[in-house]
Amino acid sequence: MPREFSTVICVTSAQAHRQTDQHADITGHASSCPAVSDSAMDKPSAQVIGLLHPGEMGAAVGRCLTDRGHTVVWAAHGRSPATAARAVAAGLTEAGTARQVAEQAQVIISVCPPHAALDIAWAVHGFTGIYLDANAIAPGTAREVAQLITANGGTYVDGGIIGPPPFPEKGLSRLYLSGEHAAAIRDLFEGTALEPLILSGSITAASAVKMAYAAWTKGTAALLLAARGLARAEGVEDALLSEWELSQPQLAGQSERSARSAVTKGWRWVAEMEEIAQCMAGAGLPDGFHQAAAEIFRRCPRLPDTVPGEETTRAVLAALTGGNLAEPA
C-alpha cells in the first residue's frame, strides 16, 4: 500500500450512534447541529471524518475524502460565507461547532494556519478518535498537540502537506505521515489526488519534512523580496533587474510571483516562518534567517489577487522599506 504531508486537517472519531444534541463550543457558545445519518455510519468502508477547517487547502483535502465515499463534517459555527461556499462545493456536511464535529467523527483532520494549530486541538479536547494534524508546525509544536490529544485517550498522527490544493489533478500534492497509526490515515487517502507517504523515524517526522521543505520554498521567496527591496531603497533596482536579466533571468519573474503570494498568503506564512525558526533553533541551527522571513511577510500588505502584478510588486517593496525609496539610478 502507498504512503505523505500544513496543511492541517483534523479528523476525529466518535461512537457511531452518539446523540448529537446541543454542545457548547470552546468559547462557550451553544449551537445545534444535524446528526450524521445511520446509513453513513453503517457503510462498511465509509467513515465519518471531521475537517477543521475548509479553507482553500482544507476544502480540497475534504473533497478527496468525499469522492471516496466518506462523510466529511465541518464546524460551520462562526465561519465566513466564503468558507461555507467551499464546504458545499467539496460535498461537506455542516456540523455546528468543533465540539459537535468531535461528537460525530471517527477521525479529525486539522488543516489550518500554523498559529491556530494548538487552538484547534483544544477545541476538540477530549476527542478519543484519530487526530491528524496536517499543519505547517515545528516538531516541538506537534508534540504539544499530540500531548493534548493523547492525554484524554485520543490517537495522534502527524502530517505535512506539500504541494497545491489536491484537486482535481493527481501527482502534484503529497501528504507526509508519521506515527504508529499513520497507516489508518494513509488508507483514507490512497488513490486520491493527495498521495499519502508514511515516514519512518520519530512521531513528528512529517512535520520536520514540511519545515525543511518550506524553509527553502518560502524562505527564499522572502529573501528575494528583501534583495529587491534593498535595491529599490538604494535607487539601483533598474541596475539589479538588468543584471538579473543577464545572469539570473528567472529572478525578476520569480520576485513578482513572490510578491503576489506575499499579499495573498503571506499573513499565514508569518507563523510558519516562526515555526521554522523554532525548528532550526531546536536542531542547533541559526534561526535568524526565518525570523527575518517572518518579518518580511508581516510587513507585506494584504491585497486581492485582482490587483495587477506590477502594482502588487510596488506595494510590497514600499511596505518592506517603509516607503523610503531612493530615485532610480
Description:
This protein is an alpha/beta fold and 329 residues long. The protein folds into 2 domains: 9-203, NAD(P)-binding Rossmann-like Domain (Rossmann fold); 207-321, N-(1-d-carboxylethyl)-l-norvaline Dehydrogenase, domain 2, CATH 1.10.1040.10. 47% of the residues lie in helices and 15% in strands. The chain contains 12 helices and 11 strands. It has helices spanning 38-42, 56-66, 81-89, 98-104, 117-123, 139-150, 182-189, 205-233, 237-247, 251-282, 288-299, 309-321; strands at residues 9-13, 23-24, 30-31, 48-52, 71-74, 93-94, 106-110, 130-133, 155-162, 173-178, 194-198. The strands form 2 sheets. Strands 1, 4, 5, 6, 7, 8, 9, 10 and 11 form a 9-stranded mixed β-sheet that branches. A two-stranded antiparallel sheet has the order 2-3. The longest helix is centred in the C-terminal third of the chain and has 32 residues, at 251-282. The protein is globular. The N and C termini lie far apart (59 Å).
Helix fraction, binned, reads 40-55%
CATH class of the largest domain: Alpha Beta
Major β-sheet profile: 9 strands, mixed
Nearest-integer average pLDDT: 87
What share of the residues does DSSP label as strand, in percent? 5-15%
**Series of H and E elements:** EEEHEHEHEHEHEHEEHEHHHHH
Shape summary: globular
According to CATH, what is the topology of the largest domain? Rossmann fold
Total beta strands? 11
Instruction: Determine the number of helices (DSSP H or I, runs of at least 4 residues).
Output: 12
Terminal Cα separation, in Å? 59 Å
* Computed Rg: 21 Å
Question: CATH superfamily membership of the largest domain, which one?
Answer: NAD(P)-binding Rossmann-like Domain
